[in-house]
C-alpha cells in the first residue's frame, strides 16, 4: 500500500511538529491532530519559521515552502485521520495515554492503515495490543530536529508483519532517512548507547570532575560530535531524559541507566533544558 496521507498525533510537541514539517517537505499530505487550539497555532508558526529560515538560507525555494505549508492541515477531531494511510503517534511519553490514543486510532482509521509510534522507550507491543491490528503497528523513532537528523530507527515488535516493516522502511527512505531496524526493547539501538553516555556526563559534572563547558568541549573537539553531552541533554529535555533513563533502568536493572541525583533535582526544580530556558546552560 503506497503511503500518501500521513497523520501525526501530538503534533504540537517539538518532535511532532518536526515530523509534520518533514513529511510535508517530502511531498506527503499531513494532518496534525491536537485538541489544543493555542498549541496548534504555535506549532504551525514554528514550522512556518523553520521553513522561512530554510528559504533565507537558500536550502529551499519560496515555492517549496508554500507547497509544504499547503500540504499541512490540522484538526482537533481524530476523525480527520480516518483516511490516512499512516498515523504517527508522537504524544507525551505516558503509556496509559498512548494506549488510549492507539485504541482510538484503531477505531477511526481504515482497517489497512498502519499505526506507528515515535516513542523512544515505551514497549511498542503494549501499544499494538491496544488495537485489533497488532501486525500493522511499528515504531518509527525520529531524532530531534526531525527534518535535519539523518537517522530513522524502525522498530519491529514480535507481532509486526514483514509487510508493515517493509512499508515503514520504504516510508523512511522516501523521507531521505538512513534506516536502521531495531527490536522492541527499551532504548532500541541509539538510546542504549546514548543514555549511559549522557548520564555519565551528568555524574562527572555532579562529582566536580570537570566544568560543564570542558565536558562538552572534550566531546566536541576530541570526538568531533556537533554537540557535547550536556548540550544534547538540554536539547532532548531533561524531563524526557529522566523518563527514558527510568524506563530503561526499570526494564534492565542495570546501574548504567540509573538516573543521577543531579538530573532528578534539576527536573524537580523545573530546569528542563532548552524548552524551559534553563538546564545545564541558560537559553534566551
Ligand atoms: N527545520 C529546519 N531547520 C531547523 C529545524 C527544523 N525543524 N530545527 C532547527 N533547525 C535549524 C535552526 O534553524 C538552526 O539553523 P540557523 O542557525 O541557521 O537558523 C540550526 O538548526 C541549529 O543551529 P546550529 O548552529 O546548531 O546548526 P548546525 O547546522 O550546526 O546543526 C544540528 C544543527 C543538526 C541540530 C546539530 O547541532 C546536531 O546534529 N546536534 C546534535 C543533535 C542530536 O544529538 N539530536 C538527537 C537527540 S536524541 C533524540 O532526539 C532521540 C531520543 O530518543 C532521545
TrEMBL record:
Pathway: Lipid metabolism; butanoate metabolism
EC number(s) reported in the record: 1.1.1.157
Origin superkingdom: Bacteria
Swiss-Prot/TrEMBL keywords: Oxidoreductase
InterPro entries, alphabetized: 3-OHacyl-CoA_DH, 3-OHacyl-CoA_DH_NAD-bd, 3HC_DH_C, 6-PGluconate_DH-like_C_sf, 6PGD_dom2, NAD(P)-bd_dom_sf
Domain 3-hydroxyacyl-CoA dehydrogenase NAD binding: 5-184
Residues annotated as site: Important for catalytic activity: 141
Residues in the signal sequence: none
GO BP, sorted A to Z: fatty acid beta-oxidation
UniProt domain 3-hydroxyacyl-CoA dehydrogenase C-terminal: residue ranges: 187-283
GO molecular function per UniProt: 3-hydroxybutyryl-CoA dehydrogenase activity; NAD+ binding
Annotated SUPFAM superfamilies: 6-phosphogluconate dehydrogenase C-terminal domain-like, NAD(P)-binding Rossmann-fold domains
Record-stated family: Belongs to the 3-hydroxyacyl-CoA dehydrogenase family.
NCBIfam families, alphabetized: PRK07819.1
Annotated protein name in UniProt: 3-hydroxybutyryl-CoA dehydrogenase
Originating species: Dehalogenimonas formicexedens
Amino acid at each position: 500500500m503506497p503511503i500518501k496521507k500521513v497523520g501525526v498525533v501530538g503534533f504540537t510537541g517539538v518532535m511532532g511538529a518536526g515530523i509534520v514539517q518533514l513529511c510535508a517537505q517530502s511531498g506527503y499530505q499531513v494532518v496534525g491532530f491536537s485538541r489544543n487550539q493555542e498549541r496548534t497555532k504555535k506549532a504551525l508558526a514554528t514550522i512556518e519559521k523553520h521553513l522561512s529560515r530554510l528559504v533565507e538560507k537558500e536550502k529551499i525555494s519560496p515555492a517549496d515552502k508554500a507547497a509544504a505549508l499547503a500540504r499541512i492541515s490540522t484538526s482537533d477531531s481524530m476523525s480527520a485521520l480516518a483516511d490516512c494511510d499512516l498515523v504517527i503517534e508522537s504524544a507525551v511519553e505516558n503509556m496509559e495515554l498512548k494506549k488510549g490514543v492507539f485504541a482510538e486510532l484503531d477505531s477511526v482509521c481504515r482497517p489497512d492503515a498502519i499505526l506507528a509510534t515515535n516513542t523512544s522507550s515505551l514497549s511498542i507491543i503494549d501499544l499494538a495490543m491496544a488495537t485489533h491490528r497488532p501486525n500493522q503497528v511499528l515504531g518509527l523513532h525520529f531524532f530531534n530536529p526531525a527534518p535535519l537528523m539523518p537517522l530513522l530507527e524502525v522498530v519491529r515488535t514480535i507481532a509486526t508483519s514483514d509487510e508493515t516493516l517493509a512499508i515503514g522502511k520504504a516510508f523512511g527512505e522516501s523521507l531521505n532517512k538512513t534506516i536502521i531496524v531495531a527490536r522492541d526493547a527499551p532504548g532500541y539501538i541509539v538510546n542504549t548507547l546514548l543514555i549511559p553516555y549522557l548520564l555519565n556526563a551528568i555524574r562527572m559534572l555532579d562529582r566536580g570532575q570537570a566544568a560543564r563547558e570542558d565536558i562538552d568541549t572534550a566531546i566536541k573537539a576530541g570526538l568531533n560530535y556537533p554537540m557535547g553531552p550536556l548540550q544534547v541533554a538540554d536539547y532532548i529535555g531533561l524531563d524526557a531524559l529522566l523518563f527514558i533513563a527510568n524506563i530503561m533502568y526499570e526494564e534492565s536493572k542495570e546501574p548504567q541507566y540509573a538516573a543521577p541525583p543531579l538530573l532528578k533535582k534539576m527536573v524537580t526544580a523545573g530546569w528542563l533544558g532548552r524548552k524551559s530556558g534553563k538546564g545545564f546552560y541558560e537559553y534566551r
